[in-house]
Amino acid sequence: MLGWLLLAGCEEKPTGPAPSRFASVKKSTQASAAAFCDKSYPAGAKRYVPAPERPFGEPVPKAAGWTWLNVWATWCKPCVDEMGMLTRWREAFTRENVPVTFELLSVDEPASQPALEKWREKNLPGAIRWIRGDDDFGPFLDGLSVDRNAAIPIHVLIDPKGSVRCVRVGAIHEENYGAARDLITQGD
User: Fold this and answer.
1) How much is the pLDDT for 49?
2) What one-character-per-residue DSSP string does 89-116 give?
3) Do 103 and 60 contact (CB within 8 A), yes or no?
4) Are 137 and 145 in contact (CB under 8 A)?
5) CA dist., res. 144 & res. 47, Å (int)
6) Virtual torsion, Cα 89, 91, 96, 100, nearest 10 deg
7) pLDDT for position 17
8) What is the pTM of this model?
């Protein structure tokens, strides 16, 4: 019976010119950016979520363009695994004249300060800030509409006007570069 139904569905012949082989592989920018973000907000949505001010090390420079806020910890393997990739992405954005400032917001416990100090000596994609407790981190996550029990890393993309445009919970991968770049370059 299933074979008969399959044959019945194949009786209609397509009309019009055959699509280009490239037409089937094109993706829309909105679809790829939306797939990158767990939560996304349109330009002008006026969603401002400043990171808690817990400076650690050098002050974070004021971004001229987009800000990529990476919530991480020294004990988080996916977070640590992303650092080299984020550094390469920062360099690629620079080569492509895409203004993005990376900030690293650590959620390490106060006892982890020596480990965090050692990280400052590495080639990190951005300056480090440090949240030392739930009193700051919980409200920060609430402001992003992220569950307080969410896993890190968490990536927050903030447009040049200071509005949160994208929140991604979880690790990113090399194949996500194009979607992130599209969001940043075409998200104004």
Assistant:
1) 62
2) HHHHHHHTT--EEEEEEE---GGGHHHH
3) yes
4) no
5) 9
6) 70
7) 55
8) 0.76
Strand, helix or coil at 124?
coil
Which two three-digit tokens encode residue 54? 């817990």
CB 125, CB 86: distance < 8 Å: yes
Residue with tokens 């920062």: 90
What is the residue whose two structure tokens read 């981190």? 137
Q: How far is 104 from 85, CA to CA, in rounded Å? A: 14
Residue 40 main-chain phi, psi, to 5 deg: -130, 150
Superfamily (CATH) of domain 42-161+169-186: Glutaredoxin (3.40.30.10)
Strand order in the sheet with 164-169: 39-40, 164-169, 154-158, 66-72, 100-106, 126-130
Tens of pLDDT, residues 51-66? 555 444 445 556 678 9
Q: Which residue has the tokens 């299933």?
A: 2
Cα-Cα-Cα-Cα dihedral of 92, 60, 54, 70, to 10°? -10
Handedness of CA 100, 51, 77, 121 (dihedral sign): positive
pLDDT of residue 97: 94
Residue 136: count other Cβ atoms within 10 Å of its Cβ: 16
Size (the chain), residues: 188
* 43 neighbors 183 (Cβ within 8 angstroms): no
Give CA 97 to chain center in angstroms: 19
Q: How many CB atoms lie within 10 A of CB 48?
A: 11
